[in-house]
């Protein structure tokens, strides 16, 4: 009895390794039957040339190896990554700094997330170390960090020059204001000085410069020709009074209280006024252009009696003033000495 065992199928020849060949052309399939070991070995050499002559050559396309999953990004990740890059590129803008701009103003106007701090951090290479100092024409990047370039360096080099120029202009303006204030103070001092001088003059005219008797100077000016000056211009050979400098139309006042004894034409004296005072002395005012009093009128010290002029025998506008012991010519005394005795400061 034959021993039990498994029947093994003989190994086919290496020349017939495929039992089925598929051809993709026209969807046809060519089936080759399996042949026994002995028959195959005998028939193969004869069948091979016949099949080679009858069958067309069929090329089987090679299949590409599968790409590992780790090397190919998923569709979801690709869709997320691409919009993110495009969105960042679209959000980045460039802003040109204008006069009067500052980072806080730009950040608020352009709605920069993170405010001026984020704007400064992104553009620190452009602005420099001082966020409060930006120059017109600077290009700031909004939404991304500014790339490094040579422009910031040029801006940094120009910044000190422009800062110094601005400082010089500010210094010049401050100096101009200082000079203007100094001029204003000088003008104010001058005005105060002139006002005090006018007040002193008015005081002398109204009170005789401190006179207790109510006497004053006839005009607020100095003497041009002194008393007793010699010369052929005067009939007596000398000047019988004093001449006060006074332009035509200057107010002439009575030197003290008294009564007008004459007011009118006086020959060589032109228009004149003569006043008798309580002490018996007479004062004369000559070459007047106009009169304000009449004979017999009482006057007080400092009261206006007329206006100076150049009537009569006169070389020009002035006031001829005399003090006499009588009403007529030839009784003259020193007029300035008399006024000083009355307390008038001349």
Overview of the molecule:
Among the domains are: 21-53, no CATH class; 223-341, Glucose Permease (Domain IIA) (Distorted Sandwich), CATH 2.70.70.10. α3 crosses α4. It has helices spanning 37-54, 75-91, 103-109, 115-122, 124-127, 150-207, 335-341, and strands spanning 20-22, 29-31, 93-96, 139-142, 223-225, 242-244, 251-253, 258-265, 271-277, 282-291, 298-299, 304-308, 319-324, 332-333. It has seven helices and 14 strands. It has 346 residues and is α+β, with helices and mostly antiparallel strands. 21% of the residues are buried. Strands 5, 6, 7, 8, 9, 10, 11, 12, 13 and 14 form a ten-stranded antiparallel β-sheet that branches. Strands 1-2 form a two-stranded antiparallel sheet. Helix content is 34%, strand content 18%. The model is unreliable at 13-53, 67-90 and 206-211 (pLDDT under 50). The radius of gyration is 65 Å and the shape is rod-shaped.
Distance between the termini: 182 Å
CATH fold naming of one domain: Glucose Permease (Domain IIA)
CATH class categorisation of one domain:
Mainly Beta
CATH H-tier superfamily of one domain: Glucose Permease (Domain IIA)
Q: What kind of oligomer do you see?
A: single chain
The CATH architecture classification of one domain is: Distorted Sandwich
Rg calculated over all Cα atoms = 65 Å
Strand content: 15-25%
Q: What kind of sheet is the major sheet?
A: 10 strands, antiparallel
**Which range best describes the helical content: under 10%, 10-25%, 25-40%, 40-55%, 55-70% or over 70%?**
25-40%
Structural class: alpha+beta
| Approximate shape | rod-shaped
Topology pattern, helix = H, strand = E: EEHHEHHHEHEEEEEEEEEEH
Contiguous low-pLDDT stretches (5 residues minimum) are 13-53, 67-90, 206-211
Mean pLDDT: 74
Number of strands: 14
Number of helices: 7
């Amino acid at each position: 009895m034959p021993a039990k065992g498994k029947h093994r199928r003989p190994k086919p020849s290496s020349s017939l390794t495929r039992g089925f060949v598929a051809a993709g052309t026209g969807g046809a399939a060519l089936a080759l039957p399996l042949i026994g070991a002995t028959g195959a070995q005998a028939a193969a050499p004869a069948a091979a040339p016949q099949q080679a002559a009858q069958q067309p050559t069929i090329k089987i396309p090679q299949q590409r190896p599968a790409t590992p999953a780790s090397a190919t990004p998923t569709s979801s990740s690709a869709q997320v990554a691409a919009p993110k890059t495009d969105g960042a590129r679209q959000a980045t803008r460039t802003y040109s700094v204008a006069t009067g701009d500052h980072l806080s103003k730009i950040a608020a106007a352009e709605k920069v997330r993170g405010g001026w701090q984020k704007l400064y951090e992104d553009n620190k290479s452009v602005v420099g170390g001082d966020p409060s100092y930006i120059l017109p024409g600077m290009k700031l990047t909004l939404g991304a960090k500014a790339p490094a370039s040579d422009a910031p360096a040029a801006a940094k080099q120009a910044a000190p020059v422009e800062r110094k120029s601005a400082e010089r202009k500010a210094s010049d303006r401050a100096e101009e204001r200082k000079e203007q204030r100094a001029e204003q103070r000088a003008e104010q001092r001058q005005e105060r000085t002139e006002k005090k001088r006018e007040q002193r003059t008015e005081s002398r005219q109204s009170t005789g410069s401190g006179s207790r008797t109510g006497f004053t100077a006839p005009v607020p000016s100095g003497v041009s020709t002194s008393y007793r000056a010699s010369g052929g211009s005067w009939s007596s050979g000398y000047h019988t009074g004093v001449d006060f400098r006074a332009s035509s139309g200057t107010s002439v006042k009575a030197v003290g209280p008294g009564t007008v004894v004459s007011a009118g034409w006086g020959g060589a004296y032109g228009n004149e006024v003569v006043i008798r005072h309580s002490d018996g002395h007479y004062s004369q005012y000559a070459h007047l252009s106009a009169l304000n009093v009449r004979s017999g009128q009482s006057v007080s010290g400092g009261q206006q009696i007329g206006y100076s002029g150049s009537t009569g025998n006169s070389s020009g506008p002035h006031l001829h003033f005399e003090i006499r012991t009588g009403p007529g010519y030839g009784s003259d005394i020193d007029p300035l000495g008399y006024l000083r005795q009355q307390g008038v400061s001349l």
